[in-house]
Phosphohexomutase (Arthrobacter sunyaminii), 330 residues
Amino acid sequence: MTAPIFLPSNQPADRFYRGGEKIRAFRGTAASGERVPEDWVGSTTTLFGEPVLGLSEVSTGRLLRDEISADPASWLGPEHLARYGADTMVLVKLLDAGQRLPVHLHPEQDFAAEHLGRRHGKAEAWYILEGGSVHLGFNRAVSAEELRSWVDCQEVEAMLAAMHRVDVRPGDSVYVPPGCPHAIGSGIFLVEVQEPEDLSILLEWKDFAIEGTTQGHLGLGFDTALQATDTRALSTADLDALVVRGGTGDSTLAAAAGPYFRAERTDVAGTAVLDPGFSVLVVLDGAGTLTTADGAWPLAAGDTVLLPFSAGELQVAGTLSLMRCRPPRA
């Protein structure tokens, strides 16, 4: 097993928010419909509470999760395996916000371990393909009592008014630390890189196709779940440290994302060499060729390519822009 694997779309249906046509336009063959707003790329993660839904297939009937378990050294490499075991450490998604997402947050690792028995929390980062506005963190300190009142009464306007609103453009990235309340604005299309878990705590669900009182707290009840919320005020400096404007290479994402995952934008005009390592390659624009010791494959915008460690050094030639999403450094 050394060849790159070109992944088809993997879109869980009937999600609780609208979107999906931008993914279809980008991918060419993705699912159509109002409630397919996510494409889970190179996924060894299931949707919360589901046994299989969300997992990527590397070919008909063969799950990536099972293939990695059977031969983790070839897929992940010896250094990764020594430090992290057979855990890929990363999940990649394409996300098309056909409407503003509800205000929500994701727990950090210790909370997820204590209350849910999970290895990971859910830090995430967004690389913006089509821009708009996002809400990120509180602009003032919020008491636990005030937060609970907003949630119980679904006081959405008060919630949004207490949050930072940030305009984002194509090429920007936003790192969202665990615990940080956030909402992606309508019309935004992005590549999301995250810890490999599906753990969301909803602060808002009014007018969405989900019953938050039963499905918004990961089965923990809001008394426990809301303890995962970072209710501190984010300063302007704090906010600036999370948002990278037009970054490339090692500076594509905020430095704080490094312990969780990596994502590197590379613009190729001619030839570029990619070092060995398990990763997901998203072709953002243009066309070219991917070459390994085993052969050459055409690349085009919308392709998502799974690169095993054993593929070795890779050469990309052409005129194109790439996003390479990877685990943290071993």
